[in-house]
Amino acid sequence: MALPIEDYAIIGDTHTAALVGRDGSIDWLCMPRFDSPACFAALVGTEDNGHWVIRPCGAVTSVRRCYRGHTLVLETEFTTAEGVVRLTDCMPVNDGRADIVRQVEGVSGTVPMEMEFTIRFGYGRVVPWVRKRHDRRTIVAIAGPDAICLRGNVVPEPQGRMHRAEFTISPGEILDFSMTWFPSHEPVPPPYDTTEVIASTENFWQDWSAQCTYDGTYHEAVLRSLTVLKAMTYQPTGGIVAAVTASLPEQFGGPRNWDYRFCWLRDASLTLWALLANGYRDEAQAWRRWLLRAVAGEPADLQILYGVAGERNTPEYELDWLPGYEGSRPVRVGNAAAAQYQADVVGEVMDALQEARGMGLAEDQWSWPLQRSLMSYLEANWERPDSGIWEVRGPLRFFTHSRVMVWVAFDRAVRACESYALDGPVERWRKLRDQVHAEVMEKGWNEELQTFTQYYGGNSVDASLLLISHMGFLPPDHPRLLGTIAAVERELKHGILVDRYVTEAEHDGQTVDGLPPGEYAFLACSFWLVGSYARAGRVAEAREMFESLLDLANDVGLMAEEYDDAGKRMAGNFPQAFSHLALVDAAHTLAATKGTPRGS
């Protein structure tokens, strides 16, 4: 069975990423891209679905792990009765290859070690043909278009459906291992000097981290979050995936299991801001170029998510041969939400590009024409109900957050014309902006409950309503926003954690998302409440809550999508871009003397 989610760490090469467990097992890896079929799928299956473990043979009395400085070079130190051994893992960056490098070093004593290597292409289903090469230090696994070669000072031997080896490691002794994916019709790639590769990978990440301009109180947490975002960036295009995993459950044993290895437009605004605000202009420009390419075309064809290179086809299907993480089924890959209409998306795109202008990113020749086209589409469609920010699979509704983001779209279009002399029907947009604002104030507000509601005519709240002040729709200390914060505290907050919304059936007998009830607290929502507190003047509460939330990160500073408070464990896909983006945003809000809403 896979480890608890928080027991994993990420290594990556800005094309794909792997999850390495505290036990030395790589249980999830897709090659050569984030969205390629997994060759190690034990995370959502069993060891027979693919993994690569290097660990002491006997009992381990303690495990200490860390990243080397501000890098993604991972060190795991095992202490046993026989001695101490260190395992170093990384994925080389910018080498034009898809590799994992592992180095075993004896620290003290003589420690018996074991290695198990099981390759399964096609998400754990395809058993490859495996052979040992003539040099006797390399094995090659091939099936269809995929091939992987494993090299090492010790090469495992066949044992049933896996390969296995045992060896010992003594003080000062170093053993090297590497695994490389390559197209099966091409020659086996040449070997690496492992020590040099680890050093160059460490230098890459140190150089990248040194560009960070954030120097506030929470520097370590912010920089680790930014490093995670960089690791989740597909370097050839600049697209950033929402997570590197698929089908880690939002409720253990339940059906809320989704594939997040795609790029959401919704992340664009916060991502662009986070990169620019922390000194990463090149990455911000690359992300904007990805955004413009992805949404280019007929505005009516706008999607809410795309593949890492801008692909529009993301068919969702189930992997029925996999048992799922802790029995959470079905295991899904692909994402059918791409076909949903979500009225907030144009607002996110308009806000992202307006933020880029405000932070000095030079206007792209296609940027404004594309935005004008999107605004024409929005003018024709803004009165339609939608699936909302949470991509519900229940009835379409007029979600209040979506309506606010419609206002944001018109507002940012007006501001672009007013502040940057861009050409557009500003009077018409200004009139529509005011019309939407009045509609939200009337239909999104529940006078009896003294709160904005999740959707027009509803009787419950939604954590996305906390973004109303963030987007500048109302001043942060407006009575209606204070009332909404109070309602979120009553309905969704437990301790320092905040749920997205009530998943149980409401007054109409249906769940809002069309799924069985039950999920854990969404970590981004908790950080949103931190920001709302700070902007509303409750700075001491905000800081206390923020620091408590930081304590929920795992031992190497990573956060999943959700947190199970009862079980004291992480849930959902991991690591989650939205959680880390919200962390960075909250840290900046706290650093400001007064939180300033977007668009002001």
Topology diagram in text:
Blueprint: E1 8-12, E2 17-21, E3 25-30, E4 38-40, E5 51-56, E6 60-67, E7 74-80, E8 83-90, E9 98-109, E10 111-118, H1 121-124, E11 129-132, E12 138-143, E13 146-152, E14 157-159, E15 162-169, E16 174-183, H2 194-209, H3 219-231, E17 233-234, E18 239-240, E19 263-264, H4 268-277, H5 281-295, E20 305-306, E21 317-318, E22 332-333, H6 345-358, H7 367-381, H8 400-420, H9 426-443, E23 445-446, E24 451-452, H10 467-470, H11 479-491, E25 493-494, E26 497-498, E27 521-522, H12 523-535, H13 539-550, E28 562-564, E29 569-571, H14 577-591
Antiparallel strand pairs: 1-2, 2-3, 3-4, 3-5, 5-10, 6-7, 7-8, 8-9, 9-16, 10-15, 11-12, 12-13, 13-16, 14-15, 17-18, 19-20, 21-22, 23-24, 25-26, 27-28, 28-29
Description:
- This protein is of the alpha+beta class.
- The model is unreliable at 595-600 (pLDDT under 50).
- It has 14 helices and 29 strands.
- The chain has 2 domains: 5-207, Glycoside hydrolase, family 65, N-terminal domain (Beta-galactosidase, Chain A, domain 5); 211-591, Glycosyltransferase (Alpha/alpha barrel).
- Helix 7 (367-381) crosses helix 8 and helix 13 (539-550) packs antiparallel against helix 14 (577-591).
- 30% of the residues lie in helices and 22% in strands.
Overall residue-averaged pLDDT value:
93
CATH architecture of the largest domain: Alpha/alpha barrel
Return the CATH topology of the largest domain.
Glycosyltransferase
Largest sheet: 8 strands, antiparallel
Give the number of DSSP strands.
Answer: 29
Uncertain runs are 595-600
Note the overall shape. globular
Q: How many individual domains? A: 2
Rg, rounded, reads: 25 Å
Q: What is the SS-derived class? A: alpha+beta
Helix content: 25-40%
The portion of residues forming beta strands comes to: 15-25%
CATH class descriptor of the largest domain: Mainly Alpha
Number of helices: 14
The CA-CA distance between the termini, in Å, is 50 Å
